[in-house]
């Protein structure tokens, strides 16, 4: 994180993942669901995971741990992790139903629906841009004063 700031990594990761969801959605609506299309979707999902694991995933841990004041730090971390864990539980329960051909049978259209949800939510990118603090030169003393 010495070459790029946390905010830059976070927002770049969000934009790239947004674009990858669009690509997966476009591949899944092509009329011929060929073997090449399946390989393309699979590779885009792997790239999506790589982008998340290199940008948004680790940066959120550092932001949650560094930004709050000392008195609120442990409480902020606990609340953030609990919300993240509940979201992961819900996502891990719903996703197999979305992808399973004998259940909801959405297949790769799941990515298109997640893209639509992200695109329709106007506050997703705006709040990421405005509410993610620049913590590049923030000292602990400065955080305590704010």
TrEMBL record:
Example of a GO MF term: carbohydrate:proton symporter activity
Alphabetical UniProt keywords: Membrane, Sugar transport, Transmembrane, Transmembrane helix, Transport
Listed transmembrane segments: 9-33, 39-64
Membrane topology: Multi-pass membrane protein
Main location: membrane
Localization in the cell: Membrane
InterPro entries named among the record's database cross-references: MFS_sugar_transport-like (IPR005828), MFS_Sugar_Transporters (IPR050360), MFS_trans_sf (IPR036259)
GO cellular component, one term: membrane
Recorded superkingdom: Eukaryota
Protein name (record): Major facilitator superfamily (MFS) profile domain-containing protein
Naturally occurring in which organism (per UniProt): Lipomyces starkeyi NRRL Y-11557
């Amino acid at each position: 994180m010495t070459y790029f700031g946390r905010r830059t990594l976070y927002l770049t990761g969000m934009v790239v993942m947004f674009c990858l969801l669009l690509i997966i959605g476009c591949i899944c609506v092509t009329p011929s669901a060929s073997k090449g299309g399946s390989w393309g979707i699979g590779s885009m999902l792997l790239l999506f995971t790589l982008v998340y694991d290199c940008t948004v995933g680790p940066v959120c841990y550092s932001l949650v741990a560094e930004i709050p004041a000392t008195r609120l730090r442990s409480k902020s971390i606990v609340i953030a992790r609990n919300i993240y864990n509940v979201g992961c539980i819900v996502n891990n329960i719903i996703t197999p139903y979305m992808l399973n051909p004998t259940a909801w049978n959405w297949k790769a259209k799941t990515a298109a629906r997640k893209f639509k949800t992200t695109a329709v939510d106007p506050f997703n990118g705006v709040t990421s841009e405005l509410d993610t603090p620049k913590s590049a030169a923030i000292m602990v003393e400065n955080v305590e004063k704010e």
